[in-house]
Amino acid sequence: MADAALTTASLLTLETVGRVLTIGLNRPAKRNALNDGIILEIERTFATLPEAVGAVVFHGVGDHFSAGLDLSELSERDATAGLMHSRMWHRVFDSIQHARVPVIAALKGAVIGGGLELACAAHIRVAEPSAYYALPEGQRGIFVGGGGSVRLPRLVGVARMADMMLTGRVYTAPEGVSLGFSQYLTEEGGSLKKALELAERVAQNAPLTNFAVMQALPLIAEASPQTGLMLEALMASVAQSDQEAKTRIRAFLDRKAGKVQPS
Known about the structure:
Layout: E1 5-8, E2 12-17, E3 20-25, H1 36-47, E4 55-60, H2 79-97, E5 103-107, E6 110-112, H3 114-121, E7 124-127, E8 132-134, H4 137-140, H5 148-156, H6 158-167, E9 171-172, H7 173-179, E10 184-185, H8 191-202, H9 207-222, H10 225-241, H11 243-253
Parallel strand pairs: 3-4, 4-5, 5-7, 6-8, 7-10
Antiparallel strand pairs: 1-2, 2-3, 8-9
Helix pairs in contact: 1-2, 3-5, 5-6, 9-10
């Protein structure tokens, strides 16, 4: 990482390596518990992503990704203020899901509550064996407020999420990769390295293809079959008409691009 430019804010660490921006949740003494300050710093970071950045990697500084909402900073709110607070978290996590570039989360230790909601907003999740997943809101007398009730059931199902919230069930990293909490499981200490490897790879894709995968694919998957097929046809037409696609296809036909091989 000799070419890395590192800047450190009080709540986030930002490091640029090539075309990848890493965002470190930087409250290790609090197991990277999330408060409004760190959420708003995330929003500012995504609002000012440099054009040269082709992918983003989230990770946690220290031993944990995030233990969720910082309950010590939870203030008394009436129903209206609580609604607006939740909508603020929705806005920020939407900016991750609908970012200009793919976002990968490197998970270790606690991935709990709001930390799990944050991970769900990423497009790819990489876990190491220490990672564990939980939603203790039921035991705290609260409810998820960062979009978890929308995003997590799409990954693991409504019944599984309900069980987690009702009983406090905790899932391990090996369980998580088979159930949909993550797509990759690494060796201990390897989640960030693997996430960076994947980020460097996806940053090399055609930007329009990345956009289609991140933004069009979820809409197609949730649409009726006929609507989905029409959206697919439109997206395919737009993608293949892009000059970047024409250049890459020509390189493949001219044997200047590698063929797909098993790893």
